[in-house]
Amino acid sequence: MNNDERVLIRYVCDGDMRRAQMQARCILGAITNQRDAAFRDDMIRRIEARKGFVNLPDTLKGLLAVDDSAVFPEAKFLLRKTEAEATEKTISLYRASERLASMGIPYLPALILYGESGCGKTELARYIAHRAELPFAYVRFSSVVDSHLGGTQSNLAKIFEYVRTNPCVLCFDEIDAIGTARGQAHEMGEMNRVVIAIMQELDQTRNNAIIIGTTNRFDQLDPALVRRFPLRYELMPLSPDEVKAFAHRFFQYASLPPDGWVDEWCGKTFEGAVPASTVVRECTDVVVKHILREGSNG
Question: What is the pTM of this model?
Fold first, then answer.
């Protein structure tokens, strides 16, 4: 028995399944012989598919979901130059905020990712959590917005109270749901108060978290709220070359050898720049047809 196997068994016996999965991922990654390649790839996919949801207090259930970002499917994730820059800058600010905290200087690393629907904003937020080695928490707006007067502000207060004592990446997916500019004719007084409440909560949250807002309506956000986010990056649809690179990674990850046919398939399937979600959907359809064909052939 080697040391890696001893560590894995120790984690399992201690009931620490998060570290056990990470250790199993390391052991699998070290397998190089062709005989075990299919088993290795299948087990890695299973580990990466597990979200590892974190147990939350009853007061937050339905408002917030938190999952362990330790295992992220990087093999099928296309990180473009601008996205890599956004990731590195965000993590650098987070590391700097830790040093500032030791000096008693408050600072909140915060980022807005904007762009049309399906361009991978939420997935990039998850990747940033993975790189920062922080849990990924995301707000369930369908439950946060409360019809009762003051209910939404109360729900936001519960979320930020959790974040202040539990370091994480907090993602407001589609932040425009509660962050639209105040003073518009169609906006009710209650929603204006919600925008003020979220800004106040952000002002009181310091150093131990990364806040990410995603939106496809950046121009609709309240300017004062936007100022709370020092970093802003626009995600664009995939270019034809990026579509091909993404498709190659996706099919390789799904154990469907992409040699020789993928570029031609991409040319026939996609026209111009397209959102990443469209490429994922079309690639998934190809994999499903391949699995069904394998099944019919025994």
Answer: 0.80
